[in-house]
Amino acid sequence: MWKKFKLLIPGFRTGRLWKKIIASIAYLVFLFFSFMMILGSGDPQASSKDNMISRWENISIVCLLIIIPFILITNLGNIRKFLPLFKSKSIGKKIIAWVISFVILFIGMTTISAKLSSQHSFEYIAMQQKQREEQAIHNAKEKEDKEKEKKIELAEQAAAKVIQASEEQAKKDAEEQAKKDAEEQTKIITATSAPTEEAQKKEINTIVEEKSKSADKEDRESIGSKVSNWFGGIFGGSKSTTNANMNEKIEKSINSNLKKGDSEKLMSIYELSDDQMKTYFVSYINEKYHKELIENKEVFEGKKVEKVKKLYKKMEFLTNLSPLDNSDLGLILMDTKKFIEANEALKEFNKEHPKVGYGIIKDISQVENLDVYVNYKIKNTGTKIGNLTIEDESYSDNYFVTSYEYSQTFGYVPSTDWQAVLRLSRNSELSGEGVYKTKAVVSNAVTLVDNKGFEKEYSVYREVSQEDIEKYDHVNDLMEQETQINDDMNESIDRIVNLLQ
Question: Is the pTM value of this prediction over 0.85?
Fold first, then answer.
């Protein structure tokens, strides 16, 4: 059995060891990444329903883009011989088969993906959109930083070339000037004394070298000063003292606008700050308000709605500061808003849908398909139903029912032992005894005395109408909606409490 199965698996069909090893590794890697893709698709900020939809999206991608194409391409189990066009000997038909197959897979993937994506909640779609926008902003910032670094690098290279060219030119000018000075000095020496030609050359070389070094040093200092001033003009020069004063002013401005709750000015401060100050900006605000929230941890744990609202109203302006979005403070405020909105939704829900009962169905699983023989209607004078004795011939909606069997001679034959009482729904009628099939639930039990004087306790089956089922479904839907709102509130509080540990 294993040998036959092994011959169907790509990599094991030839029996070569190296192919088996490569195939085994490839299958393990494929399984690992498939599980990672499916199980790792959850988002801790999303609901369990949204995470499950995302997992099904990834499962459809794995099946339609990897597993099925792999089976077709490797001809696993010689599957292509069972498919139309593939088994044809014509190359043209085979090409058409491949094209049709991949078109079907692509259409299937896009259709399933679109269908599943449409099931996501509004909050999940908004969160995904926000994440994409943040990623786009992050990418744009990275691109801007790289362009800025490139400009700085080009400017530095240009400055270096300027310095090098200036140094070379200065050195050349210094050497020429030194030669001229040496020649003049030589003429003076020649006029006063007539030294040997060798001594003259040696002296000339010494003078040229000293003049050149002196001129080169002076020119280096001059060029360095000029380039430093020019480079400082582009990039701001030395800012240590200026930055210290500026950061102090920024810090004061942050505190002032925090007290005013002016989010627009705070964002302006952030955007005009350098990277170091931006980091301090986020850290300072997060620490300041996170500490206050920790002091009010019991307010969230106790789900004290009015106090939570008061806290949120005080800090609501901070939600307009996008740099805080991914900080602990930003996440807490986001969940606080969700909690308040869910609480308002629950109030509105209870207002629109006051508490209603399920009716006769308490649990849909208790509804039975009743297949019984209706004996006859309880109508005899003196028949007791609980503490009630029927004293007239007004037909009540109660019937004796029992099991039955079918005989070719006698037809349907009921059991001689009455087993239960059936109460019809208001929309049902029976013309006489016989086989009756319906849906019913056991509601209670009654003690009855039959027309022969026998007293017995019977289970009471109440017939379930379509109206009863619709009422149950409606109430069940409402209960599920209410449960979902409560779950959303609890999840928000749990996340807040975890961040306040």
Answer: no
Amino acid 488 reads D
Structure tokens at 362: 């308490």
Is residue 340 within 8 A of residue 308, CB to CB? The reply is yes
At residue 35, the pLDDT reads: 75
Q: What is the pLDDT of residues 124-170, one digit of tens each?
A: 666 766 777 778 888 888 888 888 777 777 766 765 665 666 667 76
Distance CA 72, CA 10 (A): 11
Compute the distance between CA of residue 135 and CA of residue 466 in angstroms, rounded to an integer. 52
In whole angstroms, what is the distance from residue 170 CA to residue 228 CA?
17
366 close to 442: Cβ distance less than 8 angstroms? yes
- Quick one: three-class SS letters along 137-155? HHHHHHHHHHHHHHHHHHH
Distance between CA atoms of 281 and 265, rounded to whole angstroms? 13
CA dihedral 336, 340, 341, 343 (to 10 degrees): 140
Residues 236-250, mean pLDDT to the nearest whole number: 54
DSSP assignment of 73-88 equals: HHTGGGGGGGSTTTT-
End-to-end CA distance of the chain: 58
Q: Residue 265's closest CA among 275, 254, 276?
A: 254
Name the region of 385 (left: φ>0; alpha: ψ -120 to 50; beta: rest): beta
C-beta of residue 385 within 8 angstroms of C-beta of residue 398: yes
What integer best gives the mean pLDDT of the chain?
75
H or E stretch at 128 = helix 122-192
Instruction: Name residues whose C-beta falls within 8 Å of residue 341's C-beta, 6 or more positions apart in sequence.
Output: none
Q: Are 462 and 298 in contact (CB under 8 A)?
A: no
What pLDDT is attached to residue 334? 92
- Maximum mean pLDDT: which of 158-167, 250-259, 266-275, 308-317: 308-317
Rounded Cα distance between 289 and 318, Å, is 10
Residue 243 DSSP one-character state: H
Beta strands at 455-463 and 420-423: parallel, antiparallel or unpaired: parallel
What percentage of the chain carries pLDDT values higher than 70?
70
pLDDT of amino acid 94? 79
Tokens of 81: 């011989």
Highest mean pLDDT among 70-79, 332-341, 393-402: 332-341
Say which residue the tokens 């050149």 belong to: 212
CA pair distance 328, 500, nearest whole angstrom: 9
pLDDT at 234 over 50: no
> 442 near 461, Cβ under 8 Å?
yes
Phi, psi of 399 (to 5 degrees): -130, 145
Pull the structure tokens for residue 173: 């000018």
